[in-house]
Amino acid sequence: MLFSQRQEIILSLIDHQKVVTLEELVQETGSSESTIRRDLDRLEKAKKLKRIHGGASRIEDKAEEPSLAEKNLRNVEEKQRIGQYAASLVQEHECIYLDAGTTAMQMIPHLNLENLIVVTNGIQLVEPLVEKGIPTYLVGGLIKPKTGAMIGSGAIKSLENYRFDKCFIGINGIHEDWGYTTPDPEESILKQKVLELSQEKYVLADPSKFGKSSFSKVALLEEAFIITVKSKNVQLASFEKKTLVKAVEK
Amino acid sequence: MLFSQRQEIILSLIDHQKVVTLEELVQETGSSESTIRRDLDRLEKAKKLKRIHGGASRIEDKAEEPSLAEKNLRNVEEKQRIGQYAASLVQEHECIYLDAGTTAMQMIPHLNLENLIVVTNGIQLVEPLVEKGIPTYLVGGLIKPKTGAMIGSGAIKSLENYRFDKCFIGINGIHEDWGYTTPDPEESILKQKVLELSQEKYVLADPSKFGKSSFSKVALLEEAFIITVKSKNVQLASFEKKTLVKAVEK
DNA sequence: AATTATTGATTGAAAATGATTGTTTTTGAA
DNA sequence: TTCAAAAACAATCATTTTCAATCAATAATT
Hints:
Chain A is α/β, with parallel strands linked by helices. A seven-stranded parallel β-sheet of chain A has the order 6-5-4-9-12-14-15. In chain A, strands 1-3-2 form a three-stranded antiparallel β-sheet. In chain A, strands 10-11-13 form a three-stranded antiparallel β-sheet. The first copy, chain A, is built from nine helices and 15 strands. In chain A, a hairpin with a 2-residue loop joins strand 2 (50-52) and strand 3 (55-57). The longest helix of chain A is centred in the N-terminal third of the chain and has 15 residues, at 3-17. The first copy, chain A, folds into two domains: 3-59, Orthogonal Bundle (Arc Repressor Mutant, subunit A); 72-248, Rossmann fold (3-Layer(aba) Sandwich), CATH 3.40.50.1360. The first copy, chain A, has helices at 3-17, 22-29, 33-45, 76-88, 102-105, 123-131, 152-159, 185-197, 237-240, and strands at residues 19-21, 50-52, 55-57, 95-98, 117-120, 136-138, 141-144, 149-151, 164-170, 173-175, 179-182, 198-204, 216-219, 225-229, 245-248. Strand 6 (136-138) of chain A pairs antiparallel with strand 7 (141-144) of chain B. Chain A binds a DNA duplex through helix 3. Chains A, B: Residues 3-58 form the HTH deoR-type domain. Chains A, B: InterPro entries: Carb_Metab_HTH_regulators, DeoR-like_C, DeoR_HTH, NagB/RpiA_transferase-like, Tscrpt_reg_HTH_DeoR_CS, WH-like_DNA-bd_sf, WH_DNA-bd_sf. Chains A, B: This is Transcriptional regulator, DeoR family. Chains A, B: Keywords: DNA-binding, Transcription, Transcription regulation. Chains A, B: One of its GO terms (molecular function) is DNA binding.
């Protein structure tokens, strides 16, 4: 059996059950213990999993899971800058959509406007919004346990009651050819619907998202504007040909 | 069994019930006492829990303030009893509605069923539900800042996608003549809709609600069953003439 | 054919486990 | 309160499991 086949088995098992024993993997692949160990070594170096005594476990890219609460504290500063700029685009009397996730959440502290209405699908955004005194609508639907985002057909249906002046959505990958992508198809559909319902469309993404592409396609580059921060590691020229890109200073 | 698997069991138990005995953990994991002790040592060093004589307890990080809903700590014990009994009425494969508010929330710890689906309009209920692994749908709509409940026409519309085997709603006043009442007309309409969509209808109310009536009428007494606790201050006879009343022991 | 990469088996070392020990803490009856 | 029995504890040991390192055999590449 080829390494890539085994890798697939290993990662899929880990993905489904969080931890997997060496023995299970030997069973499942028919390979020897030594081989599996070597595979695990490689996959650990590639940061695809974490080796533990007796097997391997899923990589928890965040230090700890504070239940549903705020996590993903990576690139906070960048996200704050993006959020600040994005918030400056919003004007009084507008109705805007904020996507679930940390990036759009960073806009909230800077939303100092009267007569603003916010719609979101992220439970985490509700509390800061309400505390700011902003009238907030939450999209209904099934709750995605990991992220506290609303998804599913109920959420889509729920969305159709609204129209937005502007929407601000987060994204996992921005690729020159493949456009905006995200890992969860359910979320992808929702984002598409939001874009459809909005006059002005903004995608918020820190530089780490550029050049990457994820499983599920949301939209083409030209279908939304991009807000990001300047970074020497990312060449924006090719993206700027297709859409408006605002890169704020660090 | 691998350490990480045990860790998960241990932490989840502690998370749910605050303290856990060594014996319980031995039972639950099938590992020996020695092993569990060592696990607890490790987890204590990692600040994931606090060891106590006989087991371990949750680490009380800091004052968890619910800011959005200053939790109504009145009559907690009574509400717990009511919640416990109400939860015992729920069966597998059912789809139930839980009203926003502390009383219905008290049902959650006792909802130990497989294949249960919960719909709620209370944001506060989401986290405990999700942590229990219960598939949860949140009604969409406008958020009522004080209570974190979803209200308004959007919520009503959002509700119409569902049908419930049972619903459990909280109420502010139960009056012999005026029936069930609540102060907020918006909430009242929502509760009416929920009752309409449910097969079996339960109103949860501690004894302080009896004989009172509030601004907005939800339904007549006979339109729902009542779950409360026994109290010498309340004469239930007149209510029992009109509907089924279950008064659990204190 | 020679070289390189991958594999499975073997080895002693390291880690984890369960049982046992004697000690400390808790409990409850005097 | 005091004291003895019971329960829970940390420390230690022998056993089992898992580990990394090494080696020879096989497959792929040059």
